[in-house]
Design brief:
The structure holds two protein chains of two kinds. The radius of gyration of chain A is 19 Å and the shape is globular. By secondary structure, chain A is an alpha/beta fold. Chain A is 38% helix and 18% strand. In chain A, helix 1 crosses helix 3 and helix 7 packs across helix 12. By secondary structure, chain B is mainly beta. Chain B folds into two domains: 52 residues, no CATH class; 76 residues, OB fold (Dihydrolipoamide Acetyltransferase, E2P) (Beta Barrel), CATH 2.40.50. In chain B, the strands form two sheets. Chain B has a five-stranded mixed β-barrel with strand order 3-4-5-7-6. In chain B, strands 1-2 form a two-stranded antiparallel ribbon. Chain B is globular. Classes of the chains: A alpha/beta, B mainly beta. Chains A and B meet through helix 5, helix 6, strand 5 and helix 10 of A and strand 3, strand 4 and strand 5 of B.
């Protein structure tokens, strides 16, 4: 059985949002249901990521607020981006097996107002990191990804302008996206003048830290054809994980320059009977410029070690041959942990993006990373 | 030399304690499985991977190769503004397969990825700290 995404919703994206993640999730889900032409009474299933949402925005809270009567299916997928982007894989299992008919996925976060410690603090409670990494200042996600970027530079070469091309392209896409948080122009000179955080990553190589909620609604393709918007078909979905825990992922992974996208990508392509050359555009988890670059290679859009030169051609920027993160991504639109990437792919495939609408948007790839876990999603129009 | 002021944060009877006790003694000791001999890095309270194995700590070589390194210029640890800049690296020790030690580098020594380095145990007052310097 084939399923489709039939509704998407985003709260306003903001800094220092007073509402809790649970309240933001309710808002986003209500917007997604309205977009689908449904109400909470139509919903009987939920799939969310497994790292924080079960505590911060649990399904029972959201379901009660939106008026779900019979919640027959509730499941949690992988860590962070892998769970949010991979949610349709579990939703499809539930719908195929008759355990649910309309499944909602959502993500919500409120990190920007937490003060000292902020987004880094989520790893401070990890005992291995506290014992073996933090005493040496290997702490903070920018430092983790800088270690990989420095290794990439050593093996393959990595010019500042190559990482900068990813940041500049993200901003150019964000300028065409009304709800993006960063609209001000960003030139390569601005990037090169930006302060180094951990060599070779500058502040502009790092994602935003902001608040908001995002949701999407899934049901059978058959039912989707009777709804308001053109169906967006879940053509393929794949999970993949590296054989290592999150504690050791950033330092002990056998190859620092591959992500588990190298596992989930082939699974998704096989599921969809599609290849990288079939994909028109991609929304790739860009917590850092380097993480987007590594996944771009792992997913088959550039050979390992050549992605830096590829992005420097402008291919992924607006008007390029292979647009990536057409909403501005986590770098310049919003840090909604890949949920916003799913929403953007849906809007492009529906042809709703106005001045940012791609000329060719028939096959989209969405990639979500969560340390050792990854999900790849292939979405198409109703072909 | 660029040493973050945060020491290790260990509980009583912490599984990581022998590593830091070794550094105070000027030795590198790492945990491995008594049954299969595999290095158990990072160790945790689930113990050795083999069901009938235990964790044993073994002294290892103080020399190795820099796998990657970054110079950190912004503080992420609370109160860490005085710590930056510093250099942190992953070291692959000679004869220890599948383990990378996270450690600081002497950032005045111009050490690059791929360089040979050796451990140095720096007295920081109440404890010693692990810093890698160019190999002799």
């Amino acid at each position: 059985m084939t399923i489709a995404i039939v509704g998407v919703g985003e709260t306003d994206y903001a800094w220092k949002e007073p509402r809790s993640p649970a309240a933001l999730a309710v808002d986003a889900v209500q917007r997604a249901l309205a977009d689908a032409g449904m109400t909470g009474a139509d919903v009987d299933g939920f799939v969310t990521e497994s790292y924080t949402l079960a505590n911060r925005a649990p399904a029972d809270f959201v379901a009660a607020h939106i008026g779900v009567q019979d919640r027959a299916f509730t499941a949690h997928a992988g860590i962070a981006g892998s769970g949010t982007v991979g949610a349709p894989a579990l939703a499809r299992l539930a719908i195929e097996s008759g355990r649910a008919s309309v499944v909602v996925s959502y993500y919500a976060i409120n990190l920007s107002a937490r003060g000292a410690g902020g987004a880094y603090q989520v790893h401070a409670g990890d005992k291995a990191k506290a014992a073996f990494e933090m005493p040496f200042g290997f702490y903070g996600q920018p430092v983790y990804f800088a270690a990989a970027a420095a290794r990439y530079r050593h093996l393959y070469g990595l010019e500042p302008e190559q990482l900068g091309a990813i940041a500049v392209a993200a901003r150019a896409h964000a300028q065409r996206t009304p709800n993006a948080l960063r609209h001000e122009p960003l030139t390569m000179d601005d990037y090169l003048a930006n302060a180094m955080v951990a060599d070779p990553l500058r502040k502009l190589d790092c994602c935003l830290v902001n608040d908001g909620g995002v949701a999407f609604v899934m049901t059978t393709l058959e039912r989707a054809r009777d709804l308001a918007h053109p169906p967006v078909v879940v053509a393929g979905a794949g999970f993949g994980s590296k054989p290592i825990s999150q504690s050791g992922y950033f330092s002990q992974s056998a190859d620092l320059l591959t992500t588990p996208a190298g596992i989930s990508g082939p699974n998704a392509y096989r599921d969809a009977a599609l290849e990288p050359s079939d994909v028109d555009f991609a929304e790739i988890y860009d917590c850092f410029t380097i993480s987007m670059l590594l996944q771009l290679e792992d997913l088959g859009f550039a050979e390992k070690g050549t992605g830096a030169a590829f992005v420097a051609t402008g291919a992924t920027a607006p008007g390029g041959s292979f647009p990536v993160n057409t909403h501005g991504g986590l770098l310049s639109q919003s840090y909604l942990v890949g949920g916003n990437h799913v929403v953007e792919a849906v809007r492009q495939l529906r042809g709703e993006r106005g001045e940012a609408q791609l000329d060719r948007a028939e096959v989209a790839l969405v990639a979500g990373l969560g340390a050792p876990e990854h999900a790849t999603l292939l979405l198409t129009g109703d072909r | 030399m660029g040493i973050p002021h945060f020491g290790p944060s260990l509980d009583d009877d912490d599984v990581a304690a022998p590593f830091w006790e070794g550094i105070d003694d000027g030795r590198l000791v790492l945990p491995r499985c008594s049954n299969c001999g595999r290095w158990q890095w990072y160790p945790d309270d689930a113990g050795a991977d083999c069901p009938d194995g235990t964790i044993v700590w073994q002294e290892v070589a103080r020399t190795g190769t820099v796998h990657t390194a970054t110079r950190v210029e912004r503080a992420f640890l609370p109160g860490g503004q005085a710590d930056v800049p510093y250099s942190v690296a992953f070291i692959e020790l000679d004869g220890v397969d599948g383990v990378r030690l996270v450690a600081n580098l002497d950032d005045e020594a111009g050490i690059a990825i791929g360089d040979r380095v050796q451990a140095s145990f720096v007295d920081v007052g109440d404890r010693h700290h692990l810093v890698f310097v160019p190999a002799a």
